[in-house]
Amino acid sequence: MNDYIKTMREMVGNKTLLKIGCGAIIVDPQGRILLQERTGQDIWGIPGGIMEIGETFEETVKREVSEETNLEITEFSLFGIYSGENGFAVYPNGDRVYSIQIIFLSKKYEGSLKPCAESKQLRFFSKEGLPNNMNPHQSPFINDWLNNANTPIVK
């Protein structure tokens, strides 16, 4: 948990916090999407995480992708900005959040996949072979990618 969220939790308990997350739809040369199965969860989603105080959106997505996958995204563009009802979540410990997600698309990256402590596994999936147990909070942007939506998307 980043220091800001930890500090805010100490003040407000498990009441709803507003947070900004950044993630990346990373597509390999075969047109497959990179998904991460997070440790302690049986769901798949894209790499990403919470913005730190003072970071830019680009710094956040680059840091999160590097931390979670060992890849460095070298070129990326805005895929979409997501808000609305799907941004509400309650964690198993009772903490409530409302997230705004800034999602980028990258087809250019360097490095080799290496899971971190947050990742049970990392894999590229074809559009036809996506897992059934997708992160419900990320399915809107994964579905937009699947459907070749016009970008950038603002929802």
UniProtKB/TrEMBL annotation:
Q: Which CDD domains match?
A: NUDIX_Hydrolase (cd04677)
Taxonomically, the superkingdom here is Bacteria
Pfam hit, one: NUDIX
Instruction: Give the required cofactors.
Output: Mg(2+)
Family designation: Belongs to the Nudix hydrolase family.
Record-linked PANTHER family: 8-OXO-DGTP DIPHOSPHATASE-RELATED, GDP-MANNOSE MANNOSYL HYDROLASE
What is the name attached to this protein's record? NUDIX domain-containing protein
